[in-house]
Specification:
- The complex is a heterodimer.
- Chain A is an all-alpha fold.
- Helices cover 77% and strands 2% of the residues of chain A.
- Chain A has a two-stranded antiparallel ribbon with strand order 1-2.
- In chain A, helix 6 runs antiparallel to helix 7 and helix 8 packs antiparallel against helix 9.
- The longest helix of chain A is centred in the C-terminal third of the chain and has 35 residues.
- By secondary structure, chain B is of the alpha/beta class.
- In chain B, a hairpin with a 2-residue loop joins strand 1 and strand 2.
- The model of chain B has no long low-confidence stretch (mean pLDDT 93).
- Classes of the chains: A mainly alpha, B alpha/beta.
- The interface between A and B is medium-sized, with 23 and 32 residues.
């Protein structure tokens, strides 16, 4: 069975990726990162609105989560890309978006907006839970020192909430990298799209999709290492005694240290 | 001791839903005085001092600190709740020490102390650090300046909390059962720091169960029960010849 696989295709896709593929990989990375950043910003705004004293802001925040968590992501992507232009009768999302210093493919831009909007709804819940998890005494202490609410939020509550937010945020970004493959359906040739196109011209689905699965795995693995580093950093800032990453690697690999542990 | 009134509470009423926790509490505290509030749990003493810096809203009556109305302002002869910004400004004059310390766990001892002076009072950082080090030395923790609260004992954390409150140069210090959450062996060091503060002339209101501290450091002791002040007097009066029946009962239980 395995002999029927054309291994050289797999080999070539993994070890000798061409520049078209590298570009597709880069698209997946920047779309995921930008969409996640947008999601965090929207989630933070949503979480703060939810705690507002003004009822309309609270309702708006609730409606946002209701809609974007309750409808399929692919529908939202289509809606942002095609619907925005149709509904408002003007071209909200042009073919290429000009940011002054650089330009971006309009579809990629729409994809980032849609993925970010969707992500924001989930991030709002995560950020809200993070803020709630900070001890109530912290806000009281900050206020008793004369800090107005906003300052207390920024200097005292949010930095502590970050520790509760980072682990689920990491999961979200992991999903984001995989979900970003959906933007292929509005014509963005990212990682998945690249594989799809190659397969449709060669009729070798298994080889191409196996290779693309490998590359997604690389992305998510790299991210999990980065995430672990961030989490360790945050934990250290509350203890202040941990060794740095380099020190730990050095400790673990130094021959003397290894010998000291009884290794040959 | 000067006679200037630092804190004046007049007929303060506070309700939680239908429950009336404070039933018209009036108290005056003068500059340099240390007043201990004692009483059984549920008597409203913690709620009362939380009203003094407006962590709790009051339902009627008024509270003044340093001549400023707390939490409310007069408008056409009526009291309306003050703006967030003004309330924050009023709180700068009132230091508070909590039962559970509430130190900022993501900041070192020194960072805890200089946080409010730098962010609220806009003190230059260098000067804030200098003052912060002096305050930490004063509570005997000069060597712990770069240590995170998680690495400090309860008593040490509470002394950092005292230094943090003092850093705002408050006119009045509130202590909400500052030793109730501590291990017995660390209570002493906190009480020493508080006594030192009292002798240095700080105006203090202390909710406490430490009768030894009340006897040593207090100028006046106030007994609260069921939301009212039922007896008030010097420590000598209190511990030698209390007049009120409830006070006698309470003291006999606790001493």
């Amino acid at each position: 069975m395995l002999a029927t696989l054309e291994w050289h295709i797999l080999w070539q896709r993994i070890f000798h990726p061409d520049h078209v593929f590298v570009l597709a990989l880069w698209r997946t990375v920047y779309i995921s990162v930008l969409a996640q950043l947008l999601g965090v910003v929207l989630g933070l705004i949503g979480a703060i609105m939810r705690m507002s004293r003004l009822l309309p802001l609270r309702l708006l925040s609730g409606l946002y989560v209701l809609v974007f968590r309750g409808t399929p992501l692919i529908v939202q992507i289509f809606f942002v890309y095609f619907g925005a232009n149709l509904l408002f009768g003007l071209t909200l999302i042009p073919r290429t978006v000009n940011f002054g210093v650089f330009t971006m493919d309009g579809a990629a831009f729409a994809g980032i907006v849609a993925l970010g909007l969707n992500e924001g709804a989930y991030m709002r819940e995560i950020i809200r839970a993070g803020i709630d998890a900070v001890d109530k005494g912290q806000l009281e202490a900050a206020r008793s020192l004369g800090m107005p609410y906003r300052l207390a939020m920024r200097r005292i509550i949010l930095p502590q909430a970050t520790r509760f937010i980072i682990p689920p945020l990491g999961n979200e970004f992991n999903s984001m990298m995989k979900n970003s493959s959906l933007v292929f359906f509005i014509g963005v040739t990212e990682l998945f799209g690249d594989a799809e196109i190659r397969y449709s011209t060669t009729f070798k689905p298994v080889e191409y999709f196996l290779a693309v699965a490998f590359w997604y795995l690389v992305l998510t693995t790299v991210w999990s290492v980065i995430q672990a580093q961030i989490e360790r950093k945050l934990a250290v800032s509350e203890r202040g005694d941990e060794l740095s990453f380099r020190e730990r690697v050095f400790e673990a690999w130094a021959p003397v240290a290894a010998w000291g542990r009884g290794a040959r | 001791m000067t006679d200037a009134t630092i804190m004046r509470a007049e007929d303060v009423v506070k309700r939680f839903g239908r429950l009336e926790v404070l039933k018209g509490v009036s108290l005056e505290v003068h500059s340099g005085e240390t007043v201990c509030i004692i009483g059984p749990s549920g008597s409203g003493k913690t709620t009362f001092i939380r009203c003094i810096n407006h962590l709790e809203k009051i339902d009627s009556g008024l509270i003044e600190v340093n001549g400023h109305l707390i939490g409310y302002r007069k408008q056409n002869g009526e009291l309306v709740e003050d703006s967030e910004k003004n309330i924050a400004k009023q709180r700068c004059e009132i230091g508070m020490v909590f039962q559970r310390f509430n130190l900022f766990p993501h900041k070192t001892a020194l960072e805890n102390v200089i946080e409010a002076p730098v962010c609220v009072r806009k003190l230059p950082k260098g000067q804030a650090i200098q003052e912060g080090e002096v305050l930490l030395a004063r509570v005997g923790l000069a060597d712990k300046r770069d240590v995170y609260p998680g690495k400090l004992s309860g008593g040490q954390q509470q002394r950092v909390a005292i230094a943090r409150a003092l850093a705002m140069k408050p006119a009045l210090m509130l202590f909400d059962e500052p030793t109730s959450a501590l291990d017995p062996e660390t209570i002493g060091e906190v009480l020493v720091a508080m006594e030192e503060l009292a002798h240095a002339g700080m105006t203090m209101i202390v909710v406490t169960h430490e009768m030894g501290f009340a006897r040593e450091a207090a100028d006046r002791v106030v007994m609260m029960d069921e939301g009212s002040i039922i007896e008030e007097g010097t420590p000598e009066h209190f511990f030698v010849a209390p007049t009120h029946e409830r006070t006698k009962q309470f003291l006999s239980k606790i001493l």
